[in-house]
Each structure stands twice: as C-alpha cells, then as structure tokens.
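Troubleshooting: if your tokenizer reports a length mismatch, compare your output against this known-good record of 95 residues.
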Amino acid sequence: MDEVAGTVVSWDAEEGWGVLTSPSVPGEVWAHFSAVAGPSYGSLNEGEAVLFTYERARQDGYDHRAVSVRRPGQTDAPGTGKAGPYSSRLEITFD
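Known-good structure output:
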C-alpha cells in the first residue's frame, strides 16, 4: 500500500471519524480516529494536510477507508504507543 498526500475534508471529533481526499484516490476516503497517529488522540482539522494509506472497503457510503493517517513529518504509526492514539501503562507492586 502506497502512502498518498491528501487533505482533511471534514472531521467530526464527537463521532471520531472524518473524510479525506487526495488526487491519487478515486473518490473520498473514510477515516476513523484509531487510524490517526499523533499526540492529539486521533483528531484532525478540516483543511489539514495529511499522508495516508487506504484500502478499498465500503464504509458509511465511501468506497475507500484509511488504514493509517499521519501529519507530514510525523513518523509514529497508529497504535504504537509512541505519541499515538493508544498508550497505556500498568505498574503492579507487591508487598
């Protein structure tokens, strides 16, 4: 899957999803917050430039779905725990 440059068309922070577009993709791309890398917990802004990979998959009326989304210059992948949307820590101490 090749990464393409695109733009955020719309983003619903409450619902946790939005729409991306790119000249390299035939049509708009549905994106879920869990696919977004970065410290902003999967949030994007309308008009923001992004890089993303996608797959052909029908989702909420769109023919394509984003697999990973990142901002230009950002290297962390979604779900890696490195400033991505998912991060947790558990410390257990026994007496």
